[in-house]
Amino acid sequence: MQKTLWAFLIALAVIMPLRAELYYEGGYNPDQSQQAYFNEAYPHFEKSIIYVFYNDVYMSCQNCAQTIDLIEQVYKQNYQNQYNLFIINYGENDEYNFISAYELREPFEVVLVRISDGTPMGFKKLENLNYQISDPYSFEQNIKYQIESFLDA
Fold it and tell me: Which domains does the chain have, with CATH numbers?
């Protein structure tokens, strides 16, 4: 009798996890089409991208806030309808692997990504812009030249 009871308890312990119910935790929505899911998970940008990457984890990014403000001003005045702008603190953002994709090494870098027909066609890194803000007019002319010469090519 005791052997039968132990066999029953062991069988119950093995069978219970097998009967576990599946439940939705997020990510893919069962009511969403597969193409809609992939479009949302991997967006295709129609416009070229200006990424502003900064890493201020150790407070080592000198003039980052002022440089970002200047870049945003240039973007809003000249390129708002032409390109996408993303400002990313890559020291805290673990969602994308920007560090290896764009070989980020400095605390502040700007990456221009040329998009043609929804496909990335190359990128260009602009480094040390945060040390060039002492003359805002020259900074603006430089950043405009860099953007137009690479993204409009």
Answer: 2-40 (no CATH), 44-151 (3.40.30.10)
